[in-house]
Every structure is written in C-alpha cells, then in structure tokens.
Amino acid sequence: xxxxxxxxxxxxxxxxxxxxxxxxxxxxxxxxxxxxxxxxxxxxxxxxxxxxxxxxxxxxxxxxxxxxxxxxxxxxxxxxxxxxxxxxxxxxxxxxxxxxxxxxxxxxxxxxxxxxxxxxxxxxxxxxxxxxxxxxxxxxxxxxxxxxxxxxxxxxxxxxxxxxxxxxxxxxxxxxxxxxxxxxxxxxxxxxxxxxxxxxxxxxx
Length: 205
Ligand code: GRF
Fold this sequence. Notes:
It contains six helices and nine strands. By secondary structure, it is of the alpha/beta class.
C-alpha cells in the first residue's frame, strides 16, 4: 500500500502561477503531496484552467451568491472539510478570510505575499515598495491569522530593486522567487519541521 499523501487544497482567484509551481513540485516528486481540490472565487480564472489541465478537481464558489461573508465561508469550510485536507494554501486568493474560516483550520492555512513582511502588507505591495524607494523587496510565505498578511512568517526570499525597475519588472523578479519558496514552505510543513510559537514560526531541526 502506498503511504498516505499529505492533502492540500489551494484557493485561487487569478493567474495561478503559484498553483502551477505547487503542481510542478508534486509532479517532480519534490513534494510528497496531492492537491485534493482547487477552489476559485473568480469564475474562469486562469488558475482554474491550469487545474483542469492537470486533472484536478475544481470548485468555483461565487461570493456574490451569498448574503454575507459568513454564509459564503461556511460553504467554503464544508467543501474543504469534505476532503479532509491537511493544509489550506492561499495562492493569489484575493479575499480576506474571516474568523470562522481561520478558526476552522487554525495553524493550517498559509499564504504567499509579494513583499518582505511585515513591510507592505495588503494590496499593491510591489508598487508601494517602489514608491518608498526600497532597495530590496521579495516575498514571504506565512501562516494566516486574522491580521491581513500578519501571521507567523515561515520563509522569505530577497530580491534587489534596481533604479530602472517598474512594477512589472519587480513583480516578475519577485514571482520567480515565489515559485521556489512556496513549495519549499509546504515541504517544511508536511515534514513536520515547523512549530508556531506566538508571532513566530520555529524551524525544528
Ligand atoms: C502573487 O504575487 C502572490 O504573492 C500574491 O498574488 C499573486 C498571485 O499570483 N498573493 P498567481 O495567481 O499565483 O500567479
């Protein structure tokens, strides 16, 4: 019998290049995991196409079909629980998650953000790094708590910012690193190498 695979659900809203990086790592056997479900809150998001291409189960959940965030998130929770997943990965999921959702999967939700947190949480992180004249930026994988992009940091990668950078060039440089550190962070979790301690993540030997 093959060993039980670590089960992921990936939440997306757009292009899905981080979803692709996770899929590729699994295919290369760098990640001993499987994606049980991809959920999109945006219909026809390119990420959904990528998921279909790889034969993954995809579920579109339209927030506009629900009267409020709680009822939308209750369905989201039900769907995820039905797959008994080990980890919820936000990959460009453009919706803030409420307390109910976060409590339902406490310590088991991670996100990738295109800045060196705690600098530039929230939207347009690359643009704001440029506006501030930052000389370095990067990306961060972190556990998700109720603070927007504020949970315990798992890993980061740094990239330089050049004088002639614009938002597109900086975003591209950061994205390259995102695709490396996101699957690596998932691997650390599935290998049991991380413990959350208050604001911090401890990397066990
Ligand atoms: C990435 O820059 C990620 O850091 C941010 O949203 C973007 C998603 O890109 N949270 P993609 O959909 O994975 O290509």
